[in-house]
């Protein structure tokens, strides 16, 4: 018992860490002509299409990525794999089907 008390006496009080601050991203909220053409060319060729994949690839915000997915689905360029209230998963549409 005395050894346990002696061990905790010398360490002192724990200090709080500052934590890691994430860098704020400056993603686009609207497509310019160049980015729109790039989106129309690149996204339908991806194997796995999610909002987060589009955000990473094109540096746009998530709302614009979800709108992009809806537009490409209506055009028939991509097809749905799984639809969940939090995550939309698509893949490229193969014209042979």
From TrEMBL:
Residue stretches of biased makeup (Basic residues): 10-19
Pfam families from the UniProt entry: Ribosomal_S25
InterPro entries registered for this protein in UniProt: Ribosomal_eS25
GO cellular component: ribonucleoprotein complex; ribosome
Signal sequence segment: none
Family: Belongs to the eukaryotic ribosomal protein eS25 family.
Protein name: 40S ribosomal protein S25
Organism whose genome encodes this protein: Thraustotheca clavata
